[in-house]
Amino acid sequence: MLVAIDDADGVRTLTLNRPEALNAFNEALYDATTVALLEADADPSVAVVVLTGTGRAFSAGNDLVEMQARITDPDFASGEHGFPGMIEALTALRKPLILAVNGLGVGIGATILGYADLVFMSSTARLKCPFTSLGVAPEAASSYLLPRLIGRQNAAWMLLSSEWVGAEEALRMGLAWKVCEPDDLLAEADRHAKVLASRSIPSLMAVKQTIVDPTRDEIAAAAKREYAQFEVLLGGIANAEALAEFADRKSD
């Protein structure tokens, strides 16, 4: 099961479960996560959604093997929902979303934080937006969401530098709400999720709607700009060299 699902007291916990690949998103995981988000949104018994990862990573981002296949394989088959479908599901999610970042978060494993209502990070977790090191553009409307969430300069550093940001730095920036010891992370996220889940679900949804609705058009516009830039850069010289270097490391 690529996404493990657990329900308790109105809280649905979705756990990315591809630990052998550090929970990197391939087409199958994008599809499974999208379906899980849509089902949680539609289920009247679910008040709050918690998203976390199995193993030492939250998510290592896009599966670079599949990224290379997308460039080189004319028969590459996209998933039913894929990356765009998951972003649309995150944008449309009506229930509060809590992230429990248990380990490294790279690419979409970092930019997905822009869709969370509350972010809990393990003290040992780290985040990276590796777009410039991969020779590509931002993704997931991060060029809009991150400046809005953490300010232009913090966002510029994350999106331009491809450097790691630790949990305490993420907390200082406002990218994380609470930093927890690794063994306490899920319990703390769940404790807060259950506080929210004890409230009226229609009221929770109304609050989230009033917070998120003003941003939905901007998210869609930013994603469209990013897709256009990504399409230009994907397979370009810098991207091809970065993917070839990754493939060489993987084969060693």
TrEMBL record:
CDD domains in alphabetical order:
crotonase-like (cd06558)
Q: Which residue windows are transmembrane per the record? A: none
Domain of life assignment = Bacteria
Keywords from the UniProt entry: Isomerase, Peroxisome
Classification via SUPFAM superfamilies: ClpP/crotonase
Recorded GO terms, molecular function? delta(3)-delta(2)-enoyl-CoA isomerase activity
- This protein's major location comes to other
Q: Does the keyword Hydrolase apply?
A: no
Location in the cell reads: Peroxisome
User: A Pfam family this protein belongs to?
Assistant: ECH_1
User: What is the protein name stated in its UniProt record?
Assistant: Enoyl-CoA hydratase
